[in-house]
Structures are given as C-alpha cells and as structure tokens.
C-alpha cells in the first residue's frame, strides 16, 4: 500500500507539475495544494484520465485558518483568567505569514484503483470564492451548500447556492472562528404573539478550565499531607 501511495503522488506531481503548489504524503494519503484558478482543469483530468479515475467525490469541506497554529492548554497549569494560553503564533504552518484565511478541501476516491486523494485550495478575496465542481461531480451540490452555509465560501457556478443547515434568515456563518460560541440570536415561542420570534441571545458564555489533575498518594507513594 505504501508503494501505491508514493506511486500516486509521483504520477500526480508529474502530470500536474505546473499546476500544483505542493504535494505531500502523510498517514498513507496524498494531499495536493493547488491554486483555485487550476481547480476545474485538474479535477476534470483526475476524473477522466484512466491513470487516475477519481470518479467519486466523497466530501467537500471548508477550513478557517485564523489562529491556526495556536496550541490551547499546552501547559500543566491554568491561567488565572480561566482562558487558554496560546504558546505559538497563529500562522499557517505550511504557507507562513500572509496566507489566505479560508480553504476548500476535496476528498476523492478511485474505486478502480482503490486510491484516495485530497485536494486543498487556499482562497483569496473577501468573501472567499472558488469555482463549483458540481458539473464534474454531482455529489458536490450539497457539500458546497454546506460549506457556503457554515463558512460563507461562494462557489461560482453552483446551480442553487443557498443555506442548507441553518434557519431561514440566519445571519453569519457559524463555523467561522470569529463567530460567537453562543450565537447572536435565539428562537423562542411568544405566547402573546402566538408565533416563533427571534431575540438577542440571553445565554451567558461561561469560561471553563481543564480539570485539575491532582497527585494521588495512593499511586505516587507519598503521604496524605
């Protein structure tokens, strides 16, 4: 299997040498990084060319890289404020400072060759945009709607790009790192108006700290004092 993965990585690098930014092999899977401008061309070739035959799109997901690289709770003690301690600067470990905040990741499957491939596109602009791959893989329809709903990523050329998980009239994109954990509004039934109403959220955000691990003398060999 290891030889097969390395062989796939080599074939992808040779075929798309001028289209890819980077290709890596990790935990038995090939991941390629490519600019959004080459996405459709590369995807069509990966689907149609017999040496690849990635005819099935398994998943499409968005990524928000803001604060990426910051390690939470990498310490044996908690801070007095109750908030986590970041121990490194939040930069993209692969692209460094100034990288785009958002990305789209595509997971492909070749049943013919029993191989998987991951494509990753970093997106420029605000709002982030990328071409839709629905015409290449029909299964991308709902996946792209989900990424649009949760991350605000626009898929140009999508036949019906609208929210799929959040409620009608929902404001914001809940998987973005700057979206509040408790949300912005809440829904309740108003008995006077006899209908469902939206109102500002009344939940107070609690700051939780990790469980303190105490040394137990029964296991450490110490005394009880």
Average pLDDT confidence is: 83
Superfamily (CATH H level) name of the domain at 2-65 and 100-174: NADH:ubiquinone oxidoreductase Nqo5 subunit
Summing up helix and strand content along with how strands pair, one would put the structural category as: alpha/beta
Radius of gyration, in angstroms, nearest whole number? 23 Å
- The CATH architecture assignment of the domain at 2-65 and 100-174 turns out to be 2-Layer Sandwich
User: Treating each run of at least 4 consecutive H or I residues as one helix, how many helices?
Assistant: 4
Amino- and carboxy-terminal Cα gap: 56 Å
Spatial strand arrangement across the major sheet:
1-2-5-4-3
The percentage helix is 10-25%
The proportion of strand residues reads 15-25%
Characterization of this structure:
The strands form 3 sheets. Strands 1-2-5-4-3 form a 5-stranded mixed sheet. A two-stranded parallel sheet has the order 6-7. The protein is an alpha/beta fold and about 220 residues long. A hairpin with a 2-residue loop joins strand 1 (about 20-25) and strand 2 (about 30-35). Residues about 80-95 have low confidence and may be disordered. It has a domain at about 1-65 and about 100-175: NADH:ubiquinone oxidoreductase Nqo5 subunit (Beta Polymerase, domain 2, 2-Layer Sandwich). It has helices spanning about 1-15, 40-50, 140-150, 215-220, and strands at about 20-25, 30-35, 55-65, 100-110, 115-125, 130, 155, 185-190, 195-200.
Layout of helices and strands:
Layout: H1 2-15, E1 22-26, E2 29-33, H2 39-48, E3 56-64, E4 102-110, E5 115-123, E6 129-131, H3 140-151, E7 154-156, E8 185-190, E9 195-200, H4 217-220
Parallel strand pairs: 2-5, 6-7
Antiparallel strand pairs: 1-2, 3-4, 4-5, 8-9
């Amino acid at each position: 299997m290891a030889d097969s993965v390395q062989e796939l990585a080599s074939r992808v690098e040779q075929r798309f040498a001028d289209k890819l930014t980077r290709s890596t092999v990790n935990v038995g899977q090939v991941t390629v990084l490519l600019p959004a401008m080459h996405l459709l061309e590369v995807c069509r070739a990966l689907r149609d060319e017999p040496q690849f035959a990635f005819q099935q799109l398994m998943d499409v997901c968005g990524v928000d890289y803001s604060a990426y690289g910051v390690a939470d709770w990498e310490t044996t003690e908690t801070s007095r404020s109750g908030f986590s301690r970041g121990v490194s600067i939040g930069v993209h470990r692969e692209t460094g400072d100034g990288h785009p905040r958002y990305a789209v990741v595509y997971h492909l499957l070749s049943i013919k060759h029993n191989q998987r491939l991951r494509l990753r596109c970093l997106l420029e602009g605000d709002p982030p945009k990328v071409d839709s791959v629905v015409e290449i893989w029909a299964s991308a329809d709902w996946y792209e709607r989900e990424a649009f709903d949760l991350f605000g990523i626009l898929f140009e050329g999508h036949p019906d790009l609208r929210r799929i998980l959040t409620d009608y009239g929902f404001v914001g994109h809940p998987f973005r790192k700057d979206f509040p954990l408790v949300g912005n509004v809440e829904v309740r039934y108003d008995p006077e108006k006899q209908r469902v109403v939206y109102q500002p959220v009344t939940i107070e955000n609690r700051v939780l700290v990790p469980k303190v691990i105490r040394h137990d003398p029964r296991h450490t060999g110490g005394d009880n004092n």
